[in-house]
Every structure is written in structure tokens, then in C-alpha cells.
Write a structure and sequence with these properties.
Layout (H helix, E strand, L loop, with lengths): L6 E8 L6 H15 L2 E8 L6 H6 L4 E6 L5 H10 L5 E4 L11 H6 L6 E5 L7 H18 L11 E4 L16 H7 L4 E5 L14 H20 L3 H29 L6 H35 L7 E7 L1
Parallel strand pairs: 1-2, 1-4, 2-3, 5-7
Antiparallel strand pairs: 3-8, 4-6, 5-6
Helix pairs in contact: 5-7
Length: about 325
């Protein structure tokens, strides 16, 4: 069945991108005019501290979603999507490294696919950033086997229905395709151009890698055990109980039949405390994540707050 496109929504989160903004907007407009579809360009100002807001005010034919402070790229994307009206959603980075000229070939793939991810095969990033990305990509491949080379590419296109009943948190914008694939949507990738950053400063640092790893583990749990948490908690509980019983029996047998180990009581308490603390933190983190997701999905609250929404024509 042919997928008919009426309107395209560009969703672009921004944080301190005053220097890249004007050129990016110009390139997007040039592309959509060739496509001859109705369109909207939504810029989300994620608490920028430079003149990004002032530069946005100078642009025509844009919707400006201004967040009260910086909540992160995922929150920006979520806010943009929830304020969009297109039946095709295009996400892009605001630094100008994604080339809007690649959008038509990604949209063309939507005739057979639900999600199309850009693949920056020839990346123009600093060596350190490429190193961290390489490690994250290998880890993601082992955990999810999603078949996508470049989950971190900001240039992606989606059919509107992909975001029905989907809320984004943390650093999960990199894993949207994994979540959607687990829901039965068809995902593919297309090689896209990647340009060096000419203006502004990169927002990437090692803490984002750690956050991505945590979100990766959360998604893994959510995919496999969201409907049956007792399976994972019960398994951990059974294993810990079994190990504990054997450990106690071993200590008792050793104490009465052989000889006392030096500091055996202290060592037993220390290692037991470490193990229990680790398990409690892990389990508490998962339970908290489930509670937070349930809260945001069943209430009007969001993990971000919008200061204003303006449409400029």
C-alpha cells in the first residue's frame, strides 16, 4: 500500500547554536520547496545561554518551542514531536553537520519502511568522539543486534504513528529505532553525508556515553521483562538465596571441622554488604524507572517544561 505524504515536520533541538541556525534553516527551506509537500520547521530551544532565541525570532515560517531550561536532546525531540502535525517526522541535529539535502532519499524509503536512520559512514568528527562512538556501537550491537550502524546519527525520518503512546526520556533519542523495532515497526538505514562542524562547539562529552550505556541497559530490561518483572527479580532472588545458603553452610562446616579463617566474620560481613548494596541499587534503579515511566504516561506531567510556543509565518 502506497504511503501518502501530506505534511512533513522537521524537529530540531538546539542548544547554543546561534551561529549555525540561519544557514541550517535556509538549507531546509530549499529542500522542502523541491519536495513540494506542506511542511513545518520546529526548532526547540533547549535552554540556550547564547543568542539562539534571538536568532530564532529572526526566522520566518518556523515554530519555536522554548524550554524553561536545558533538559537535554531527548527532551527537546520529545517536545518537538508532541507539538508537530506532520504525517512524516524528520529529526536533525542543530549544528549543521547533518545535510538537509539527504532528507528526500530517506523519505522515499518510507514507502516500504516505517523508520529510516541515517548512517554517517564517513564521519567528520574529532578522533575522541569517534572512539567513544565506536565503543558504544559495538556494545549496542552485542546487546540488541539491531542491524543499524549509526544509532547516534541525528538525521532520521519516521511515520507519524511511530510516536503513538511513546514518551522519550534520558538519552533515549539514540535508541528510538530499537524501541520501535521491538513494537513491530520496520527499520532500515541509508548512508548520508556528514559535514564537519564549522561553527559553535560540540556538546558531546564522556558523561553522555555513560548515560547512553545506562539507558541501553534500561531499554534491554524494558524489552524483555517489562511485562514480567518477577522473572528477573525472582531469578536474582533465587540465585542470591542459593548462594547465601551454600555460603553459610560452607562457613559453618569449615568452622567446626577444619579451622577458623583470619577475620572470617569481618570478611563475610564486608563482602555480603557490598553484594547486597549492589543488588539493591540495581533493583531500586529499575523499579524507580518503571514508576517514573508509569507516572509520566498516566499523567499530564512531563520531564520538561515549556516556556512558550510561537509560530512565525
Amino acid at each position: 500500500m502506497k504511503f501518502n505524504i501530506k505534511k512533513i515536520s522537521f524537529v530540531i533541538p538546539l542548544y547554543n547554536e546561534e551561529e549555525s541556525l540561519k544557514q541550517l534553516h535556509k538549507e531546509i527551506v530549499a529542500v522542502v520547496k523541491k519536495l513540494k509537500f506542506d511542511y513545518e520547521i520546529i526548532f526547540i530551544n533547549d535552554g540556550s545561554t547564547d543568542n539562539t532565541q534571538k536568532e530564532l525570532e529572526k526566522l520566518d515560517n518556523v515554530k519555536i518551542v522554548t524550554l524553561r531550561r536545558s533538559y537535554g536532546q531527548t527532551a527537546g525531540i520529545d517536545a518537538g514531536i508532541k507539538n508537530s502535525k506532520g504525517d512524516v517526522i524528520v529529526t536533525m541535529d542543530g549544528d549543521g553537520q547533518n545535510n538537509p539535502a539527504d532528507v528526500p532519499k530517506l523519505i522515499k524509503k518510507l514507502q516500504r519502511w516505517d523508520v529510516v536512520v541515517g548512517w554517517r559512514k564517513r564521519r567528520k568528527d574529532p578522533t575522541l568522539k569517534k572512539f567513544f562512538s565506536f565503543g558504544a556501537r559495538k556494545l549496542r550491537k552485542i546487546i540488541f543486534k539491531d542491524g543499524i550502524h549509526d544509532a547516534g546519527c541525528g538525521l532520521k525520518v519516521f511515520k507519524r504513528e511511530c510516536f503513538d503512546n511513546l514518551d522519550l526520556y534520558g538519552e533515549m533519542h539514540r535508541f528510538i529505532h530499537i524501541i520501535l523495532k521491538s513494537r513491530g515497526f520496520k527499520v532500515t538505514e541509508v548512508i548520508v553525508d556528514h559535514r564537519p562542524r564549522l561553527k559553535g562547539k560540540t556538546k558531546y562529552n564522556w558523561t553522555r556515553t555513560i548515560k547512553s550505556l545506562v539507558d541501553m541497559l534500561t531499554i534491554l530490561f524494558w524489552r524483555r521483562f517489562a511485562n514480567r518483572p518477577l522473572h528477573v527479580f525472582g531469578t536474582f532472588g533465587f540465585l542470591l538465596t542459593t548462594v547465601g545458603i551454600f555460603g553459610i553452610v560452607g562457613i559453618v562446616v569449615n568452622h567446626f571441622l577444619f579451622f577458623n579463617l583470619p577475620y572470617e566474620t569481618m570478611l563475610l560481613v564486608i563482602f555480603s554488604t557490598i553484594v547486597l548494596a549492589g543488588i539493591q541499587l540495581f533493583v531500586s534503579g529499575i523499579i524507580t524507572d518503571i514508576c517514573v515511566k508509569n507516572f509520566f504516561s498516566t499523567s499530564s506531567e512531563r520531564p520538561y517544561y515549556i516556556s512558550s510556543i510561537k509560530s512565525k509565518t
